[in-house]
Here is the input.
Amino acid sequence: MACCCTFTNTVDQQFTSKKAGQELERYRRKGAGPTTRLLVAGIEQAGVGDGTLLDVGAGVGALTFELLDRGFRRAVIVEASAGYTAAASLEATRRGRATDIDFVSGDFLEVAGTVPMASVVALDRVVCCYPLYEELLREALRHAERGFAFSYPRDRWYVRAGMRLENALRRRKSGFRTFVHSETRMRELITLAGFDLVSQRRTLSWSADVFIRRAGQCPS
Here is the structure.
């Protein structure tokens, strides 16, 4: 999901089939976006670029396709937007990857019990969707056997100001909101779950972090 949502009946209002089609066309023409490229590089650097991938809020599937092309065997995409799920499925068929990807529709926090664990769990521009981000992170980390990767808006005044403006402009049209969460608190949650940071790549507004589960630490 490009970013981001509260999941209170706002997903399909914000992430429409039209928007998904435009994003898919852009991906086909220009390749993956900045945070996706940073996550791919970080996952490769971390040495966990194989096995299975759980891509939460995958949007049109750019991160999944890039990682499958680089060595992952299989992937599960969890996506709450019907339009984005359809676009990712279409692209999977076009790329000959339909049999390599399982699609799960819905809010990850609601469907997590039906989703298998994976070698690596990734959330690209997703955590900013959730006001209850701690629950999202804890559930994602429980599904990660070896690695966890996510991108998020940096907790800087100019990022917060930009999101406040975007939210104000949206207010008349929908209940959709974006959030800048505490980097310190997110790092604390991930560390407590048994993961260590091994890669951090940043732009002015975004951070793409990759963590590896510590030796001897088993998923809870």
